[in-house]
Amino acid sequence: MNLSFSTVACPGWSLAQAASAAHTFGYQGIELRVLDGKVVEPSTLIGRSAEVLETLGDIKVASIDTSIALAVDGPEWAGQLEEFCASAAAVGAPVVRVWGGRYPSSVRYEEAVEQVSKRLNEAASIAEAASVQVLLETHDAFSALSVMEDVFANIPSPHVGVLWDVHNTYAVGKSSPHEVWSSLGDRIAQIHVKDARPGAGELWDPVLLGFGAVPVRESVETLKQADFGGWLSLNWLKFQRPELEEPEIALPQYSGLLQEWIK
Hints:
- By secondary structure, this protein is an alpha/beta fold.
- It has a single domain (2-262), classed as TIM Barrel (Alpha-Beta Barrel).
- It has nine helices and twelve strands.
- The strands form three sheets. The chain has an eight-stranded parallel beta barrel with strand order 1-2-5-6-7-8-9-12, surrounded by five helices. A two-stranded antiparallel sheet has the order 3-4.
- Helix 3 (77-90) runs parallel beside helix 4.
- It starts with a strand and ends with a helix.
- The mean pLDDT is 97.
- Residues 21-239 form the Xylose isomerase-like TIM barrel domain.
């Protein structure tokens, strides 16, 4: 198991600063979600692979995290995914993250699940051509374990899988780490972690590790027992929640405990 962090944690940093912090705080990789202060777009990395690789040095790109939402996007999603997969291959990232999204109330649950499943089967061919994997994150309307089970019921390709956000499956469906892994473990290729506690309404507030209600340590134990060898990635939402602790505080606090728990 290797540690990484998403660049949503440090939206004000340059890529060089993120790489330096990874070295300093004990991370082996980063997820590219925000670059130069902006969310990555399909064209963001085109022509920049050499620059990215030189800047990162021995820090790996764990994934490229897109805004593609398979349940709601128009037909342009496929072309965007092709560009993202090409960029991922160019910088050595094994994974491209996509979402299901929040579909409108006029769309029936069965229709949304069917569309996401169909598009993931199409995404498998795109991913295979680029020698990467496309992962659907447990996020938005697709956070609950039961929903992901329905989505992946008819997806045979190993080129698509699951990015398990531990907070989301717990906050939405109260699924334990053991339950999630028992059901989806053979499809899970990457993990997002952040601790949080219930806030206003359905919103949970991210907190430093150990100060919330998310079973992060239990998740790490589950992954250890399964001999998980992928990326365990901090998804500290500083980009979306500017009031959160600065990356200089959150990154070392999380990595210190996670490294201790991984041993």
